[in-house]
Amino acid sequence: MSSFLVTGASRGFGLALVRQLVSLPATDVSTVFAATRGPSAEIDELAKNSSGRVVAVKLDVANEASAKQAATEVEAKLEGRGLDVLINNAGICQYAPDGVKSMDNLTESFNINVLGVHWVTRAFLPLLQKGNLKKVANISTSLASITQARAAHYLPGPAYKISKAAMNALTMQYALDHEKEGFSFIALCPGWLKTDLGGGDMADLTPEEGAKASLDIIFTPGQKYNGQMPKVFVKGWENAKGPNVYDGTNVPW
Question: How confident is the model over 153-191, as pLDDT tens digits?
Fold first, then answer.
């Protein structure tokens, strides 16, 4: 029985992750801590109908004190048990229509996409060290690949790409520091999803498809993905024509 905490759980991909997790048998997933910055009717409804398996947690990832308080609350709920999996999903994607010279949102992007991931991970690390699975999935994007930067240049979101590339570097540092403890820190790319952040109906995959495929990676036994940046595998997309192929391979950083 594994316990999970998902940040940014109020909508989109985060909400899909919570729904997918709670749909699994309680013998596989015991508790899902759904962390949101503010109230969420969807999470409240899931919690009400989950027989205690979904627990709403208030957490503003851009506030270190909030991360510490959330960790204290989760620790109390776990009653001496550890946390098995942390999914750092909360993120922000802002645009600079006139190119990088017009970018005035880098600070906010770093606060949420990099510092937020660091603060939450650091706050929950003692609980993760007591857990069995010891998995941390930081939700990334192939748009952050420096190798593939030219192909991704069409999207006028330099702050998003830069901050996610920094988050990938942060993921690797955690991976190296804690691999001997049995941890897997993963920069996981769930694909182009039909969410408000992702681009709505123009995108490739539903949040549900992305969630299921992402959990397939997270549930992989052992440390295969520690320090890696894997794409999800989605049947029918492994040989897709065009730039987006979801074949389970690693994105070139």
Answer: 999 999 999 999 999 999 999 999 999 999 999 999 999
**Beta partners for 87?**
6, 137
Question: Is the Cα torsion angle 170, 107, 128, 215 positive or negative in sign?
Answer: negative
Q: How far apart are CA 54 and CA 51, in angstroms?
A: 8
In which residue are the tokens 């776990």 written?
78
Mean pLDDT of the chain: 96
CB 127 within 8 A of CB 77: no
Q: How many domains, in total, are found in the chain?
A: 1
- The full DSSP string for 131-150 is SSS-EEEEE--GGG-STTTT
Q: Does 134 fall in a domain? A: yes
pTM over 0.90: yes
CA 85 to CA 3: how far, in whole Å?
Answer: 6
Please tell me the distance from the alpha carbon of residue 30 to that of residue 77, in angstroms, as a whole number: 12
Q: Which two tokens stand for residue 155?
A: 């999207």
DSSP category for residue 211: H
Domain membership of residue 244 (yes or no) is no
In a domain, 231, yes or no: no
Give the model's pLDDT for residue 201. 77
CB crowding 66-84: b at 16 or more within 10 Å, else e: bbebbbeebbeebeebbbb
